[in-house]
Design goal:
Elements lengths: L6 H10 L3 E6 L2 E6 L6 E5 L5 H10 L5 E7 L3 H5 L1 H11 L2 E6 L4 E6 L10 H13 L18 H16 L3
Parallel strand pairs: 3-4, 4-5
Antiparallel strand pairs: 1-2, 2-3, 5-6
């Protein structure tokens, strides 16, 4: 499969939505125009990866309606669907899945401005753990290779040391 295989089903879909569609316009894979609306730009890729995200970011200076178009069977998307959709929302991108076998096109996500909702409990937990730790006992970035010394563990070790010194166990 080639990226260009995704073009015709997408073009037919967008034309059915009353868009005028052209391919490879000013480095954009697909540009669709309808009346006085901002242009819709679709970047086509066979996999959802950093390259296509960077292309989308580059296109934001041209239009706010950026979609990423990938094959329906894209493994990189299916593997991490929830997190991928979250990232696309954060970037303000839409997502289109294209099935070239059936010529089916499905808009999974429309572009929109992302405003993350802060969760008060998570913030309080983070700040509580930060302030209750003594010193900076952990090297950032190695949590999976070595256990993290949490404030709870620091307190437990302090109690164990006290009990050992006072032979009260």
């Amino acid at each position: 499969m080639k990226e260009s295989d995704l073009y015709l089903p997408l073009k037919q879909y967008l034309e059915s939505q009353n868009y005028e569609v052209k391919g490879e316009v000013c480095d954009c894979d697909v540009v669709a125009i309808k009346a006085d609306e901002p242009p819709v730009i679709v970047e086509l890729k066979l996999v959802l990866n950093l390259d296509v995200l960077l292309q989308g970011v580059d296109r934001l200076s041209t239009s706010s309606l950026i979609y990423i178009g990938i094959p329906y069977e894209c493994k990189s998307f299916k593997k991490r669907k929830k997190l991928s959709l979250k990232l696309l929302k954060m970037l303000g991108f839409g997502l289109i899945l294209i099935d070239i076998k059936s010529n089916k096109v499905e808009v999974i996500l429309d572009p929109s401005e992302y405003k993350p909702r802060q969760i008060k409990q998570q913030k309080e937990k983070l700040l509580g753990e930060f302030h209750s730790r003594v010193g900076d006992p952990n090297l950032g970035g190695i949590a999976s290779k070595k256990g993290v010394l949490t404030s709870y563990r620091q307190k437990a070790l302090k109690i164990a040391l006290y009990l050992e010194k006072n032979e009260s166990y």
